[in-house]
Amino acid sequence: MKTMMIIYGKINFSSLARYSGLSEKTFRRWFKKPFDFIEFNAKAIARVIRPVDEAIAAFDPSFINKSGSSTWGKDFFWNGCAARAERGLELISCAIISVAHNTAYALATDQTPLLKKRSERDKDDPSRIDIYLNFIKKLSTTIKKYTNFFVCDGFFAKKTFVDGIVEMGFSFIGKLRCDVDLKMIYTSAQKAGPGRPKKFAGKCDMSKLQGFEFAAKFDEEIDLFSGIFYQPALQRTIKVVVAQRTNKNRIGTMFLFSTDLCIDPVKIFIYYKARFQIEFVFRDAKQHVGLADCQSRNKESLWFHQNVSCAVLNLIKIQDFFDRTIDEKNKSFSISSYKVRYHNKNMIESFFHKLGFGLTSEKLIPVFQQMLNYGAIQFRKG
Fold it and tell me: Closest Cα partner for 205 from 183, 187, 223?
């Protein structure tokens, strides 16, 4: 993990061998061994997120380009960057997100397996949604130590997925389509006589926000409206929050929902907004710690490489959490600066070790700290 922190460029078996002094074959053997990354990440996350802190869990898949034809799990998956399905690998990840610090920490990562063709699929064969739910179910006990709220984007607003998350004991928060079908709950007195009691008061007119009430004003530019409705596609009663921009230059409306009918509408908006931090986990892991650089085709090595990349990213974020001063509390996180400092530190220590000098002199400490920040975007005194 320390070696992955100091490498520039692609992080694979060849580059690990060049920077560490161990052979490439050693890394290939190590990456086939099992390791409990769930427990490792959970203990690391516990250093920065306590059980009493406000947190949410997020789940999302990510596309990884992969050449060749013999790589395990290679299939057609949706590539959001290209806005189309392409051949490659799909990585699924679950993260714990600190709402207070607006930072996501990867808990576990796995790869979506290759599914059978529709013509060859049996009734008992799992669908892609079943695979996602089975992955989350393995992590449910660990996730509940931090939160009972599970947040996903609009793709997962499906009955099968939402029901599966609720059955695990979580409250689901997601996004609805702008043309969603909502039925208003009938709350007036029931008419006497035979027949079934009236359940609904008609379909909600979304253009007029019929059945919604003003909830709060967020950031002076967003008005929040909320209401409780029945959603036929989900076959359940949900709490819906409409986020409407009041700025004329940035017009837009977003429909969010929660299976928890008692939650504050402002929290629904804040939690869904915090969900986007999982996207930065994929971005930073791909750009800086070699998430997409695995030099292997077998299942075990791919799994190990993907998980160790996310674990390294967690460690760097946790280091940043403890390094921050009160003045740096609201500054953005720069993994690039940390990579530069780790690289500089390794290189300087190597020079002194080879030359036979020590770094114990007090005169060297300020100069050493200066050289650590050489080339870093964010300067840190140390």
Answer: 183
Token duo for residue 34: 């099992």
Q: Which residues are CB-neighbours of 1 under 8 A, at least 6 positions away? A: 308, 311, 312, 315
Cα(19)–Cα(45) distance, integer angstroms:
28
Specify the 3-state DSSP secondary structure of 118: coil
In whole angstroms, what is the distance from residue 84 CA to residue 343 CA?
37
Residues in the chain: 382
| 3-class secondary structure, 94 | strand
Helices assigned H by DSSP within the chain: 2-6, 13-20, 24-30, 37-45, 128-143, 159-167, 265-274, 277-288, 299-323, 335-355, 364-372
3-state secondary structure 220-241: CCEEEEEEEEEECCCCEEEEEE
- Residue 95, token pair as written in the block: 């993260």
Do the beta carbons of residue 243 and residue 254 sit within 8 Å? yes
Asked if 106 contacts 93 with a C-beta cutoff of 8 angstroms, the reply is yes
Using only the alpha carbons of the chain, give its radius of gyration. 25
- Give the distance, in angstroms, between the CA of residue 18 and the centroid of all CA atoms in the same chain: 31
Extract the tokens encoding 300. 């075990």
Contact 314, 338 (CB under 8 A): no
pLDDT in tens, 28-38: 999 999 999 99
Contact 338, 316 (CB under 8 A): yes
Per-residue pLDDT tens over the stretch 10-55 = 999 999 999 988 999 999 999 999 999 999 999 999 999 988 899 9
d(CA 367, CA 365): 6
223 CB contacts (<8 Å, ≥6 apart)? 214, 217, 243, 244, 245, 246
Query: What is the C-alpha to C-alpha distance for residues 86 and 282, in angstroms, rounded to an integer?
Result: 18
What does the alpha-carbon distance between residue 175 and residue 272 come to, in Å, rounded to a whole number? 8
What does pTM read for this prediction?
0.89
**203, two tokens:** 């379909």
